[in-house]
Amino acid sequence: MMYKIRTERLPELFALAAADKALYLPVEQGGQVEFRPWSEGAAVRFDALNTVRSAKDLFFPQTENLVAFRTEGKKISIIENADTGAPFGLMGVRSCDAKSFEILDRVFLAEPADTYYKARRENGTVVTLACHEPEETCFCAALGIDAAESADGDAASWIRDGWFYLKPVTAKGEASVETVRPLLTECDGADDAAVEAEKKDIGAVIGQLPFSKLDLSRFRGENMLEIFNDPRWKELSAACLGCGTCTYVCPTCQCYDIKDFKTGDGIQRFRTWDSCMYSDFTKMSAGQPRLTQVERFRQRFMHKLVYYPMNNDGLYSCVGCGRCLRKCPISMNIVKVAKTLGGEQNDEQ
Amino acid sequence: MSNNEALIPKLGVVTDIRMDTPDVKTFRVNAPEGGKLFEHMPGQCAMVSIPGVGEAMFSITSSPTNKEYMEFSIKKCGCLTEWLHQIEVGQQICVRGPYGRPFPVETEFRGKDLLFVAGGIGLAPLRSVINYVRYYRENYGKVDIVYGSRSAADLVDYREIIDEWCAEKDFGVHLTIDREQEGWDGHVGFVPNYVKELNFPTNKVAIICGPPIMIKFTLAGLQELGFDKTQVYTTMELKMKCGIGKCGRCNIGSKYVCKDGPVFRCDELDELPNEY
Ligand code: SF4
Ligand code: SF4
Ligand code: FES
Question: How far is the CA of B249 from the centre of ligand 3 (A)?
Answer without folding.
Answer: 5
